[in-house]
Amino acid sequence: MLSKRFGKMAVSTMAGAMLMAVAACGGGGGDAGKSAAPDAGATGEAPKAAGLKIGLAFDVGGRGDKSFNDAAYAGLEKAKTELSAEIKDLSPAGDGSNRGELLRQLAEAGYNPIIGVGFAYGADIKKTAAEYPDIEFAVVDSPTSGKNVTGLLFAEEQGSYLAGVAAATKAKNGHVGFIGGVESDLIKKFEAGYVAGVKSVKKDAKIDVKYLTPDGDFSGFKAPDKGKVAAAKMYQDGAEIVYHASGDSGIGVFQAALAAKKKAIGVDSDQRLTVKETDLQSVIMTSMLKRVDVGVFEFIKAFQGGAKGGKNDIYDLKVDGVGLSATGGEIDDIQAAIDAAKKQIVDGAITVPAKP
Fold first, then answer.
1. Taking the complete model, does pTM exceed 0.70, yes or no?
2. Cβ pair 286, 325 in contact under 8 A
3. Do 203 and 172 touch, CB atoms closer than 8 A?
């Protein structure tokens, strides 16, 4: 079921107004768990853009993180190519203190829609969207906060469950690890799904867990040195495979895996393809794909078709919004187990926890 050509899948978005709480923030609503549905006002083929100007504000780390931000930019680039859109991207200060300023800069320059990448934009998007009611906004990993705001949400726990199945099946000694960049509700979804997946294969597995920075300190997403130290400790303690959800800090995890001659699991993008260092590529057994590129592009296409905000678009396993990469062939021999786990989740036989 999990195609090796995952990158070519198509994911639709919702057009009808739908209010729900977001699992990424630890809440639960009546519509939680629904998948992104086709926009009733959009056609299967997007029309050519007429003066479409799209603004995108990156999360801390900016372009070039080979992970979360780069995935969002891939969706923006696709809109430029396929929808003939004019695009503009901005990166925040190292501490992210000017997120609101970036959004207003894009709004004043006439960009519409405007996308904030990362849950840390939630409050700034809410405020800015109220100031510019005629502009449509989207925020990745945070729920809608207004009639002109679309939340782009992902079932990270489901994709991480599959990563856990892969890690537990491959780790001969039953000892694996997880490194989160920031100890936030969102990253805890990755941990919860991963641990559940590991335990589904080996109930007595040993799972080391480490967060690089506490909630609110986003430097954990851009600290490769901290990622390397944390992963090196896990490998020294016996972990065979370490899964990271730490943005640019994951480079350090890969460096530690190379030094220890062990394996790692990437996140967000197919990191075996995005990491340029060939020696690091070889340690990446698989990556948990979070299709932010698809979410960004589908939001833009739906906007062009007349869709409005006040809703959340959900990207889960059912619509291949998350999954595992197969680049390198290192999980080919366990694909049947991964496919079986995916089917159970999609069919509802397994409900993956979103909290540790």
1. yes
2. yes
3. no
Task: Please state, in angstroms and rounded to a whole number, the distance separating the CA atoms of residues 113 and 108.
Answer: 12
**pLDDT tens by residue, 90-124:** 999 888 899 999 999 999 999 999 999 999 999 99
Note whether 195 and 164 are within 8 A (CB).
yes
Domain 6-154+292-319 CATH (choose: 3.40.50.720, 3.10.450.50, 3.40.50.1820, 3.40.50.2300) = 3.40.50.2300
What confidence tens digit (pLDDT) does each residue in 166-183 have?
999 999 999 999 999 999
- Best CA proximity match to 55, nearest among 100, 79, 90, 96: 90
Round to whole Å and give the CA distance between 249 and 52. 34
With CA atoms as reference, report the closest residue to 296 among 71, 135, 105, 35: 71
Rounded to whole angstroms, how far apart are CA atoms 342 and 319? 11
What's residue 73's pLDDT? Answer: 96
